[in-house]
Each structure stands twice: as C-alpha cells, then as structure tokens.
Amino acid sequence: MTLSTNTRHAVVITILMVLMATPVLAYHPDAFIFVMGLSFIAFLVKLGLAMWVYLRNPSAKVNRYFGIVFVGQAVWDLGKFMMWQIDDPAKALIWSKVSYTGYIISLFFFLLFIWAYLKKKNLVNSTKAGQAIFFTVLIALIVLLWSTGMVIEGLAPRPEFAESGKAMWAYAYGPVYNYFFLWFQILPFLYGLFLFALKYFSTKLEDKKKQVLYVMIGSSFPIIIGIPTGIILPALGIVLPPHNNLLTLIMTIFITVGIVKYKFLAIQPIGEQAPRRKISEDILREFRMDHSNYYMIRHKDSEEISYKMLLNYLAQDHYGLIITAKHPEKIRTSHGVKTTPIVWITDSETEHLSVDPVDIEQMYETVRIFCQKVKNPFVMIDGIDYLIHHNNFHKILYLVEEMKAAIEKSGGVLIIPEGKLELEPNQERMIYKELTLLPYSKSDLKAREGGLRGLAKKFKTFKHIILGFTPVTESLLAELEKEGIKPTIVTTEKIHHHIPKERLKVVTGNPLSKSMLIKAGVLKSNTLVMITMQEDSEAILAINKVRQLSETIMVVTNINNKDFNPIALKAGANYVVPSSSIGGRLISLTLCAPNAVRWVMDATTLSNKAIELVDVTVGKKDFFTKKTVKKADDTLGKAANIVAVENEKGLHKIPDDSYELKEGDKLVLIANLNLINKKTPEDIRKALAAGRFKTR
Question: Which of 9, 446, 448, 608 has the most other CB atoms within 10 Å of its CB?
Fold first, then answer.
C-alpha cells in the first residue's frame, strides 16, 4: 500500500496529536475544559460535514447514509457535551440517552454506508425482509435504551476530574451493552475495515484506490487507537479522559476527503483504435454533427447510428467518452469500440469505471473534468431512459443543461440516443428545446446542403477574421467575396487584392498579438477565425493565442506539413486544411462539409501544387458511365478520387461506393495533375485535353 506524501504526513501528525494529548489530559486539572470543548467542536464539524456531503447529492445513497451516520455522531457529541455540563444526575441521564441514540443510529447506518459505498448487495439491503429485521433491531435497542436500564443503567462521576468541581459523568452500562458493544460497535468497524482493505488491494482503478485509502484510514482510527486506549489500557488500570469524539472526528474528516476529493472519475482520454468504417452517404448527411452542439438521435436504430457517427468522428483524431447503462464489454463487442473510455451506469459492484444511476453530481463532474482535458470531445450518454427511471425527468433535464455548458466550453459534441425513451408531450417539448434532433428534416437538409451560398446566408451575422496573408488567403478571399461576406484580415503584409476596401477590413499588425486579435474582434460571439500563415509553427501559435482568448469560436487553419495536423487539432483548431492551390476553397468547404475535407485529407497529402479540385460531367459513353464509384476510384488510383456526385437529387458529398454513375451526373474530384499520364484511361486524358475538367 503506497501513501502519498500528504497522506502520510496527515496520518502521522494525527496519531502523534492523539498520543501526546491523552497523557497530558489525564493529569491536567483543567482537562475537562478541553474535553467538553472538543466535544462541542466535534459536534459542529460533524454536523457541518454531514450536511455538506448530503446536500451535494441527496439522491445518492452514499451521500444519504454518510449524512445520517455523522449526524448521529454529531448528536452523540452534543449529548455528551450537555451531559458533562449538568450536575443533576437525572437530567444528565436524559442527555446520555440522547447521546447514545445518535450513536446507535450512526453504527447501524455505518453498515449501510459501507455496502452502498462498495455497491455490495446482500439480504439486508436488497430484500424487504432483511431491511425489516435490520431496522427492527435498531428500534429495539433504542426502545431498550429509553425504557429500561439494560443499555445504560445510570451515570457515575469520574474520580480523575474530582478536583475540577465537575462530575464529568461516565456511563454505567447495563447487561445488554456488552452484546451491543461487541456485535454493533467492534464487529461493524472491523468488518468495514476488512472490506475497505480488500477493495483497496483488489481494485485496479487508481481513482478508486485513492478514495478507498482515505475511507479505510478514517475507519481504522476507532479500531487501531480506540481499542487500545478504551479497552486495553483501562484493563491495566490506566484510565484516559474521554477521547472517542476526537477519534471519530478524525474518521469523519478522512472519509469526507475520500468521498469528495476522489469521488469524481478523472478519466484519461485515449484515442480510439478501432479501424475506420464506411458509413453511407445518407447517414453522414442526415446525422452530421457540428462542434459545440448537442444532439438527440431519434430513429428506430438510434443506438446503432449514434455509435457509428461517434466512431466516425473519433477516427478523425477526436477524443470520446461513453456513459452507458449497458455493460461496457457488450458495447465494445456490439459496436466495435476498442479504446475509448466507457463509464457504466450501475448500482452493482464492478471493476469497470462506473457511476451510480442516482449520482447525478458524479456524472456531471466526470464529464466536466474530461472536457477540461481535451478540445472538441465527443460525449455520449447512452441510456437516458434508464437515468430518468432511477431519478426523475426534471433532474435529468437539469443534468443535460449542465453538461451542455461544460461541453460547449470545450467545443465538444453531446450525443444522446433516444433508445426506449418515452415522455409526456410537455416533457418532450422541454428536452427537445435543449437538443438538436437528428435526422435533420428535409428543409434542414436543403438549407445545410445549399453549398457556400446557403452557408453564407446562415453565417451572414457571423464575424469572419483571417489571420495572415498568403496565396491561400487570396483564394479564400475570392470565395468569401462571392458570398458577400466582409472579412477582417490581421496582417503585417501589404495586401494586393481586387476586393474593394468597403468589402474588406484590414487590421495592420502582428496576427500573433493578443491586442491585435482583440482589436479584430476575436472576443465577440459568433466568430469564425481562419488562420492562413506561411509557417506551421506560427499557425499553431496563432491557434493557442486565439484559444487563450476564446474557447467557443470556430477556428480553421491551414497547415503545410501534414505531420503537424494532430498538433494543430490538439492546440484547439476545429478543422485543419492543407496549404495548396485549393487551400482557400477547402477552408470555406470546412464550414459546410467538414467530412468531405477530412476524407480528402486522408486520401492525399495535398502538399503538391499540382493538386486541383475539379469537376466533370459524365458523358453518354465515356469512362465513368455505368461504373460504380468504387470501381471508378480503383481505376483512377492515386491520380484522382471522387469526393462528391451531383445528380437530380442534389449534391452527395462522399458518395456511396455502390452508387452507379450515369450520363449527366456531375462529379467533383480531387486530382493530382502530375499523376495523370499514359496509364490514365484515355477518356480521362481526352476530357482534360478538351477542357471538360474545370477548376472549382
């Protein structure tokens, strides 16, 4: 067992304080003042911690039982404090019974806390009969305490405090107490300590180890120190002042730290290693997702589609987190998830990363902490119907709202499969108001696929900022001019461009300067920043500068060396495109068809200046006629790849491999002109020579 430096120091200092304080108190004439003061302080601290932990998440059993245990402990301390203040033995006896009522309740609920914390199920906590017997014994002990002298027979003054003038009453126990002490005090603590130690040495989850360690250390104080000082030393004739409240106070603090500090799962982001799968054009089109957005998949196959889309985006160097009500191994087997972390929503004991279905706080904090670690994460909540069943609709609606804020701040995406969710009409309206429903309606698809012209209308109110001025910038300016968009350029270069001054704002200065970025308007909402720098190092630095100022705006950058693409994405870019003759056009394309750009970048390095984005119309009897997209791509090889097909049904980006090309179809290809040679089909070379290819 390895303790951190801070933990070792805390344990050693605590033990030394107890060992040094007890002999001093045993002989100091004013020790009673310290003992009573400590009891009152213990009462306040335990009550405060109990209420604080409980109110953090009242629905969680662990929080509820912790609250009851240490409210009971607080009552125990308050009762003793009041008992020691009173000289009348009859009145003091009443407070002694108040004290022991709290103590008995705390011991019984400590067992429930252990089982809830470790998610252990047994006859007591999982059956009505077991619960009835358990609480019957609890009630019987309290009844015996108040109605008879079988638990506490009376009180006797402590002789060691005679000089103080205070009785400092000690309990005179009845015949039942010895059985109570053994079965409900010593054994529960030993049992809990054993279970915590077993969990500590068996679990492979580091966060769980840290949490269990604190709880285990806290639970050990009443045993390791309490038994020697409360039983062994008195048997040897050495009587110490009352100090159990000090031991249980230390226990309270350690368990609180364990629950609160190490409760939330600090999940390590891991890139998905599953091979990329082919997804039909229709699914990509109808279920496309944008960063800083939140989606509910409403479809008969909502789970299947959600995982397909998630894996599609994770294959693009994004990090993901899955929180699901299904067994993690089933998710990995059914959907092919290899390495992405999965948190299981369950109230059963497990060695998987898990969260209790009613522990909303832990669920939210786990997502929030994960989103702080990575940019543009994809988070899936699979099992919203299960969560609503174990909580209530409004609580889960609040959870969704809170998760939205955390995910939006990191530029991420929230995916919620509808699954078997059944809601009342007013509940549907409330949750649908918070989420974008997929698949898109026909009108939404038409608006999204209207090309750059439709995009320009959508982003008309957005502020467009370009950092740097290169040949890519000129290409980009031409695209923006067509759409009537007035961009702001931050550069030290002198701009030579035909765009009228009234259609272009220039901020002369260093685009890597925070003051210049602020002057350009980076802090404003609804802003698109397009980085077109000559050097990759400057582009990555620019991304960092922009992200220091804003986490929510969209950032698109060009990169010369493809090896720097992952670095740019991790730095905070939403999309990365290459520097080439089509770089400016690709930057524009990312805003409406990011999947197409990603596919293009995977297919070719695009670093060669001979690469062109071109289109061709399929003739009556040429090379493409009646060929599938896959067969055409295989024949073209590295010379060209089809990235879109436009037919009577509209433009299809990343067309289905099985689609058969026909006369009149317009194809969009990414072509490397240097590789079009004698081996290229004659029809293609003739088409190029005839000028059928047109640079887009």
Answer: 448
Residues of the chain with CATH 1.20.1070: 26-261
Q: Supply the pLDDT for residue 471.
A: 67
Cα–chain center distance at 264? 9
Q: What is the fold of 610-696?
A: Alpha-Beta Plaits (3.30.70)
Provide the strand spans (E) within 442-592: 463-467, 488-491, 505-508, 527-531, 554-559, 575-578
Task: Name 183's Cβ contacts closer than 8 Å, sequence gap at least 6.
Answer: none
Q: Rounded to the nearest 10 degrees, what angle do helices 31-56 and 61-85 cross at?
A: 160
Provide the CATH number for the domain formed by 452-607 in this structure. 3.40.50.720
| Positions in the chain whose pLDDT score sits under 70 | 1-32, 160-167, 182, 227, 229-235, 237-241, 261-266, 441-461, 471, 475, 479, 482-483, 496-501, 562-563, 578-615, 637-639, 643, 650-656, 670-696
- Listed in order, the ranges of the chain carrying CATH 3.30.70.1450 are 610-696
Q: What is the pLDDT of residues 597-638, one digit of tens each?
A: 443 444 333 334 455 556 678 888 777 888 888 788 777 766
CATH class of 26-261: mainly alpha
Domain with CATH 3.40.50.720 in the chain: 452-607
- The top-level CATH class assigned to 290-439 is alpha beta
Rounded CA gap, 412 and 585, in Å?
Answer: 25
- Which of 131, 161, 152 lies closest to 30 in space, CA to CA? 161
577 strand-pairing partners: 558
For residue 323, give every residue at least 6 positions away whose Cβ sits within 8 Å of its Cβ, in sequence order, or none: 342, 343, 345, 355, 363, 366, 367, 379, 380, 381, 382, 383
CA distance 533 to 466: 10
> What single DSSP character describes residue 560?
S
Q: Which of 131, 118, 117, 121 is nearest to 62 (CA)?
A: 117
Three-state DSSP at 583 gives helix
Map tokens 């961009």 to a residue.
487
Quote the pLDDT of residue 608: 40
Q: Where in the chain is the domain with CATH 3.40.50.300?
A: 290-439
CB within 8 A of 203, min separation 6: which ones? 209, 212, 351
pLDDT recorded at residue 606: 38
What pLDDT is recorded for position 93? 93
> What phi and psi values does residue 297 have, to the nearest 5 degrees?
-90, 110
Dist. CA 149–CA 230, nearest whole Å: 22
- The candidate with the shortest Cα–Cα distance to 288, out of 272, 308, 274, 317, is 308
439 prior amide bond cis, ω within 30: yes
Q: What is the pLDDT of residues 132-158, one digit of tens each?
A: 999 999 999 999 999 998 989 889 887
Q: What is the pLDDT of residue 674?
A: 63
* Distance between first and last Cα of the chain: 65
pLDDT of residue 433: 83
CA angle centred on 128, ends 124 and 131, rounded to 5°: 40
User: Are β-strands 413-417 and 436-438 bridged in parallel, bridged antiparallel, or unpaired?
Assistant: unpaired
